[in-house]
Amino acid sequence: MQLAFSADNEARISRLLADYPDPKACLLPALYIAQEQFGYLTHEVMELVAERIGLPAGEVLSTATFYTMYKKRPTGKYHIQVCGNVSCFLKGSDRLLSVLEKALGIRDGETTEDGLFTVTTVQCLAACGTAPALQVNDTYYEEMTPEKVVDLVKRLREEGK
Amino acid sequence: MSIGPTNLLLRWREKRDLDKIEGYKLHGGFRSLRKALIMKPADIIAEVKKANIRGRGGAGFPAGVKWGFVPPGDGSRYLVINADEGEPGTFKDRALLAEDPFRIIEGAAIAARAVGLTAGYVYMRGEFLEIAQKFERAIADARKGGYLGKNILGSGLSFDLFVHLGAGAYICGEETALLESLEGKPGRPRLKPPFPAVKGAFARPTVINNVETIAAVPVVLEMGGDAFCNLGVPGDGGVKLFGLSGHVNRPGLYEFPMGKNLKEFIYEDGGGLPDGKALKGVIPGGSSTPILKPDEIDVPMAFDGLKNVGSMLGTGCATVIAEGTCMVQVALRVARFYAHESCGQCTPCREGCAWMASTIERIEKGGAGMGEIDLLLDIARNIKGRTICPLGEAAAMPIEAFVVKFREEFEAHIRAGGCPSLAG
After folding, report:
1. From CA A90, how far away is CA A132, in angstroms rounded?
2. CATH for B11-231?
3. Does the B244-321 domain belong in CATH 3.10.20.600?
4. ipTM for this prediction
5. Are B314 and B285 within 8 A, CB to CB?
6. This model's pTM is above 0.80
7. What is the pLDDT of residues A10-19, one digit of tens each?
8. Which residues in chain A touch residue B253, judged by CB atoms under 8 angstroms apart?
9. Residue B422 has pLDDT above 80, yes or no
């Protein structure tokens, strides 16, 4: 089936085009909209974005693969991103990661079989004063402890059923 | 004499509802903009120059001078606010964006009036999505109130502001990589010249300022450039946000006049290290700033003060490291970060950062020879000065400092065939 943006997303992209002097500048926001609708960015999705913005598909691929927040494969419903940089490391982020890996039965970078959770180590989240920090999708969780991580996983599991 | 905290920027701690337009106005919001709208543009730039506010993103370039570089002329001219905060250890702009968004909007409109800018983009890192959504609501409220958009407060000035989200790339905090990213491309830094002031976003004259720099602009107009400048130290005007993280009793965000003593910051304001542990080192202003040993921290936190001890003020957010921490592990986190974040455009950075990370990893895990310590220094020194943008330097300088200042620890790792702390 031919991919298409939903009417809502089509309208969002039209509005975005008015915010920039060059339609090409809409590429990053349009990729987010596509990711929101389709879950992740396949070549077909990138082609759809390319056509909508008026760019060669190769340029869209080049930009989409440069940035880590564009997903090129399916990710769990809850993407847990654990900061592993200096300040979080000093406050025990390695321990948080191993607790998560144990609780979910997966390793860093993997997704649980039920598709509920993906865990990845990420670079600095700019929450060093409240380290260790992690994000679940777009929400920050700060001053985390192994106990809080276990509770969080339990709650998300309930919610995600 | 000890320098106490101020709250010119951190005022949300005592003033409520600053993040709502009514609350913001109640606390004197947009007064500076009203003042700016009846001032001559050149006079506004003169005040910002007098304030001697040096770029708060870490480079320390005087904001007023930067504004003055934009050539006169017509047509589109842009403001870009760098909110791509992501240098490990740094966490100041995120709070400003979330807690006092209208200050940033007001500062942007003042910059527009001073330099003759037609539109602005707040380039926020993608991870800040929830803050970005809140900021967009603030922009909408400011438009409704007549503080943004066409004919601002009936003055004839037209300027609008938009949020643009990044997508996970530290390099986009470099100003020209940021412009590439804003234009929809991979964030690979541009060669300079031309400088953004002449040819920036969409090939038009552009001013790029850090969030905190723009947030300070309404303060400068409110109190006057000289008064703001005099809060700081010679060569470095005003107040600044400072952060503490790592092994410290009271981590978090602080505000002080420029020149606050780093040692005093850690031990008095920050309450020292937990469990009375001894200090091993301090990364003074983000991961790119070379680490200081305990006997090097009795210095003023100002751009020149930290330069004098061979490091940098950077973003002013310090990371405190206690005795008992493996410095090779800390160096490895830093090295891996830059290897991950190098855009790959320049060979010395792309290859050098990856080799520094893999060499430190071998030292940490075992299997490295004693000659690899000098090899590490050689790689670092061969990155410096050979790249388009400062990321190469930002990676090489701290690694060099870790190796030079904690060399015996690297040697002990190699002798033990891996990290002694992991061997137990």
Report:
1. 8
2. 3.40.50.11540
3. yes
4. 0.97
5. yes
6. yes
7. 999 999 999 9
8. 129
9. no
Scanning B277-316 for CB atoms below 8 A from A yields 283, 287
Element (H, E) at B230: helix B225-231
Render pLDDT for B256-286 as a digit per residue (tens, 0 to 9): 999 999 999 999 999 999 999 999 999 999 9
The DSSP annotation for A48-80 comes to: HHHHHHT--HHHHHHHHHH-TTS-SS---SEEE
- Was domain B327-423 assigned CATH 1.20.1290.10? no
pLDDT of residue B1: 57
Q: Quick check: B100 contacting A, CB < 8 Å?
A: no
| d(CA B276, nearest CA chain A) in Å | 16
Interface contact A19, partner B, CB < 8 A: yes
Cite the residue boundaries of each domain of chain B with CATH code 1.20.1440.230.
Answer: 327-423
Contacts of A141 in chain B (CB under 8 A): none
User: Which residue among B185, B247, B252 sits closest to A129, beta carbon to beta carbon?
Assistant: B252
**Residues spanned by CATH 3.40.50.11540 within chain B?**
11-231
CB contact under 8 A, B127 and A135: yes
Query: Is there a contact between B333 and A86 if contact means CB atoms under 8 Å apart?
Result: yes
Percent of chain B residues topping a pLDDT of 70? 99
Would an 8 Å CB–CB cutoff place A55 in contact with chain B? yes
Residue B27 has, within 13 A of its CA and on its CB side, a CA count of: 20
How distant is the Cα of B410 from the closest Cα of chain A, in angstroms? Answer: 18
Summarised one tens digit per residue, pLDDT across range B58-87 is 999 999 999 999 999 899 999 999 999 999
Which strand ranges, in their side-by-side order, compose the sheet holding B206-210?
B160-165, B119-124, B78-83, B206-210
Where does A78-160 sit in CATH, by number? 3.40.30.10
CB contact under 8 A, B337 and A123: yes
- Cβ <8 Å between A86 and B287: yes
Q: Where in chain A is the domain with CATH 3.40.30.10?
A: 78-160
CB contact under 8 A, A22 and B187: no
Instruction: Looking at the complex, report in whole angstroms how far the Cα of residue B85 sits from the nearest Cα belonging to chain A.
Output: 7
Q: Cβ of A126 and B333 within 8 Å?
A: no
Kindly report, as residue ranges, where domains of CATH 3.10.20.600 are found in chain B.
Answer: 244-321
Q: Are residues B125 and A161 in contact, defined by beta-carbon separation less than 8 angstroms?
A: no
Domain at A7-66, CATH homologous superfamily: NADH-quinone oxidoreductase subunit E (1.10.10.1590)
b vs e for B339-360, b when ≥16 Cβ sit within 10 Å of the residue's Cβ? Answer: bebbbebbebbbbbbbbbbebb
Chain region(s) in chain A for CATH 1.10.10.1590: 7-66
